[in-house]
Amino acid sequence: MTDRPRILVVDDEPQLTRVLRTGLKSRGYDVRAAADGLAGFETFSDWHPDLVITDLAMPNVDGLELCRRLRAISQVPIIVLSAKGEEKTKVEALDVGADDYVTKPFGIDELLARVRASLRRSVTQSKSEPEPTVLDSGDFHIDLESRRVTVRGSEVHLTPKEFDLLVYFMKHAGKVLTHRTLLAAIWGGDYVEQDQYLRVFVGNLRKKLEKEVSGQNYIVTEPWVGYRFMPESGPPAS
Amino acid sequence: MPASSEPKWTDYLVAVLSVGALTLLLKLLGGHVNATTVSLALLLNVLFIATRWGSVPALLASVIAMLCFNFFFLPPFGTFTIAATDNWIALFAFLITAVTAGQLSARAKKRAEEAESGKREIGRLYAELREAFQRASHAEALRQSEKLKSALLDAVTHDLRTPLTSIKASITTLLDEQRDDPPLALDRESRIEMMEVIDEESDRLNRFINGLIELARIEAGELQLRRRWGAVDEIISAALTRAGSITREHRIEVDVEQELPGVRVDESAVSEVVYTLIDNAAKYSTPGSRIRISAQRAGGEMIRMAVEDEGRGIAPDLRERVFDKFFRATRDGDVSTREPSGTGMGLAIAKGIVEAHGGKIWIESAAAGKGTRVDFTLPIGDEETPDEPQPQKSTSEEFSLSASEKV
């Protein structure tokens, strides 16, 4: 019983927590629910779940504040449930530490896929310490010391900034990265409003990476939010 | 108004002619006027010209006046020569005085005109500015109303999407089981729970949409009241029957005054109001607490009804806002505890119904000092109200019938 991954669902809508509890339990997860951010935080502290799914608009402590408080004490993966029209709050949540988001209304399959991806990532992250000298994931192989990059075995030549961007993408593969997060990570805090830098570099990086495998979309654009890096070759993007 | 611009040739002509005319007049008076009177009269004329046509015609008038004074009034008459030395001084003094006074008064006149036109300019600018302000405040009002509209839209989409999210999550879970890939085994209980959620949330969507339609009708003034004579206790008992399942855990007290007259209202609409108030009372007070429904005769031709609970109450500053559509005290107001939250339409609809009947609705603190008490009044309605839609011609027949039944 104890090895079942634990998921904490935080939503003020009792009907939805009812459905998610049943849906997630039937998939083998151990689930607890909380009705607002405050109760969610308390449950988190007592129960130490492996993943948190939280709504954004809630009474008392909202989802945004919950992300902030959780990040102060833990690296637990957080998936945000957002509604259309909450884009700003969603981006803010990702900026303060949420890992992914699902837009309401959603099918249970989509949520389950995000849950699996987030859990997988957190497992690899906790295993991969101390800092590796080689990043190997999907079609990509990066040697951090010699700064060599190969995609499906063929070497790709990148500028220093493009290299940094790719390394950051690799380290956070599958996770939604907001424009601000990427700008702050690669160019520093003064550049967080300079979206156009990012567009140019991402454009160049895409050209170089996807030259080898045409039709492959490794860097997925998340409209209005940012990018998501998918290192595995999958079916060509539509 | 004199022309404040450059003097025209006619101005010079008039200046010359006026001096000539005055000289002629003075000459006709002959021995009745002395040189001092003549000089003062001519000076007056120069001043007049200066204020009327400006400094240059005044200068011309001064010179002509000096010549006329010399020619006609200083001995020897009819020549430009002057016999006595003191008359030279008089003539010279006259010229200086005429020129100076003329120039000064012309300048003063000009200043006054400039001040006047400055004042007009300021007035014009002020009017323009005020107009600009009005335009700006109009734009601001428009912006505010757009903001309000989008806030309302947000509230509506949230309330539509919330049940939809639960329905979609339930359905996809059930679908997953049918597809069986990867294998998923829902037990019977879970399956029933999913279907219950779908059922309840569909009802919730339907209720919400009905509420929206009702609100739209009220706002458009299209609330069709089917007024008939009815008894207040029947209206209350209809609402209580409907609220049976939600008030099971509360103690209900009904206190209707004896000999309460019948009311001519839309019974189902008023019953809806009472139901909404009971529903709110049950929702926002603890199980086991008391809900009191009362009705009595108020002053004049009014009935006053109230629903009172022992819940947490509503802060005085929110007591008017709770009647605004989509306002929810538990979500939008100051909340310290978690409570179920409604659609934000019930009280807005209740207010619409009560006001369409010509009554009023408001909130007070409950008599016990805690809890909420919602009061509303309804006119007993023995007079016809022609401005409200009368659904049936037979109303008057019913009136006499019901009235005779009640006697």
Concise account of the structure shown:
The complex is a heterodimer of chains A (about 240) and B (about 400). Chain A has helices spanning about 15-25, 35-45, 65-75, 85-95, 110-125, 160-170, 180-185, 195-210, and strands spanning about 5-10, 30-35, 50-55, 80-85, 100-105, 135, 140-145, 150, 155, 175-180, 220, 225-230. By secondary structure, chain A is an alpha/beta fold.
Average pLDDT reading of chain B = 82
> Could you state the oligomeric state of the chains shown?
heterodimer
Strand order of the largest sheet of chain B: 2-4-5-7-6
The main β sheet of chain B shows up as: 5 strands, mixed
Number of helices of chain A: 8
Largest interface: A-B, 27 and 30 residues
Helix count, DSSP H or I runs of 4 or more residues of chain B: 9
Mean pLDDT, all residues of chain A: 86
> What characteristic shape of chain B results from the CA principal axes?
elongated
Radius of gyration of chain B: 46 Å
Describe what this molecule looks like in 3D.
Chain A is built from 8 helices and 12 strands. Chain A has helices at 14-26, 37-47, 63-73, 87-95, 108-127, 160-171, 179-186, 195-210; strands at residues 6-10, 30-34, 51-55, 78-83, 100-104, 134-137, 140-143, 148-151, 154-156, 176-178, 219-222, 226-229. In chain A, helix 6 (160-171) packs across helix 8. The mean pLDDT of chain A is 86. Chain B has 407 residues and is of the alpha+beta class. In chain B, 58% of the residues lie in helices and 10% in strands. Chain B contains 9 helices and 7 strands, in the order αααααβαββαββαββα. In chain B, the strands form 2 sheets. A 5-stranded mixed beta sheet of chain B has the order 2-4-5-7-6. A two-stranded antiparallel sheet of chain B has the order 1-3. Chain B is elongated and about 140 Å long. At the A-B interface, helix 1 and helix 5 of A face helix 4 and helix 5 of B.
